[in-house]
Amino acid sequence: MKIQFESKTLVIFESALFRTTTSLLIAKDHIVLVDPNWFPIELQFIQDYITKLDQKKDKYLFFTHSDYDHIIGYNFFEGYKTIASRNFVNQKAKQSILDKIATIDDDNYTKREYPIAYPSIDIVIEETQDTLRLGNKAYQVGYLLGHNDDSIFLLDPTQKVLIAGDYLSNIEFPYLYYSYAEYIKSLELLSSIITSGRVALLIPGHGDYTSSLSDMKQRVEDSFDYLRRLKEHCDGKTLFDFEEYVKRFDFPQVMGKFHEGNLGLVGKEEGER
Predict the structure, then answer these.
(1) By three-state DSSP, how is residue 56 classified?
(2) What angle do CA 13, 69, 175 make, to 5 degrees?
(3) DSSP per-residue string spanning 75-128
(4) In what helix (H) or strand (E) does residue 233 lie, and over which residues does it extend?
(5) pTM (2 decimals)?
(6) What is the C-alpha R_g of the chain?
């Protein structure tokens, strides 16, 4: 498993699949492991790394959202206190999410030595923006709806590290599973956090971290640009030349289905107004 970034207080792991990231925040008296993934050999790599740390530290497992690739490592890390949003706890599509994991494992002949289950959550984030106190630190958390209906971010003010879940990736345009309108609000919130000076390092759920403020701002603008083009196309104002647009990405072949899904969701939202 690749390590994108490593310091005494932060490690960013990268899976070979979908360039999915797992973040490890290391404090004096605790650790926070965010969205561990994908395959057993990768989860073992993460566990072996954690084992080398002070085993007296309290251990927390933080889920940015309930997409199957972000909960797939649950139950591998026994004894961790779990953290997620209230919407995550109330997620209605739990069985569908677990079915996707089963399909991935069947397709790849993957055997896991731990039971696949939807995470049971110990610490529930209730407020749209809140302070999460763990050990000797206070983290900032908040809802980021739009990609799906239960996403949250995690901001470590001490390190100025923002873990954004499936937002602000440099290898994907916005994938809309829940709401265009809410996605716009989430981008506005992320933009305000970034421009406030509270972020020195941004970690997306897929792709590369960045410590460049100009790059962070550009990712926000790129996301707004895609959504603007999408909306204007659905409104019949302009034609979105997606084949030309998608050439900027490293993996354009797979992205057509996500764009089609976005078109369908925006069209449905418009029809419901």
Answers:
(1) coil
(2) 100
(3) TTSTTPEEEEEHHHHT-TTHHHHHHHHHHHHHHTT---SS---PPP-SEEE-SS
(4) helix 213-234
(5) 0.95
(6) 18
Which structural domains are found in the chain, ordered by start? Answer: 2-214 (3.60.15.10)
Crossing angle for the helix pair 180-195 and 213-234, to the nearest 10 degrees: 160
Going by C-beta distance under 8 Å and a sequence separation of 6 or more, which residues neighbour residue 77?
33, 36, 43, 47, 59, 61
Token representation of residue 147: 């990609």
Taking a C-beta distance cutoff of 8 angstroms, is the pair 206, 166 a contact? Answer: yes
What torsion do the CA atoms of 172, 176, 179, 182 make, to the nearest 10 degrees? -10
| Segment holding 244, helix H or strand E | helix 242-245
Contact, 159 vs 119, CB < 8 A? no
3-state secondary structure (DSSP) of residue 12? strand
Q: What values do phi and psi take at 102, rounded to 5?
A: -60, -40
Residues of the chain with pLDDT under 70: 270-273
Spatial CA neighbour of 246 closest among 273, 226, 271, 267:
226
Chain segment 64-94, per-residue pLDDT in tens: 999 999 999 999 999 999 999 999 999 999 9
Residue pair 64/70 in contact (Cβ under 8 Å)? The answer is: yes
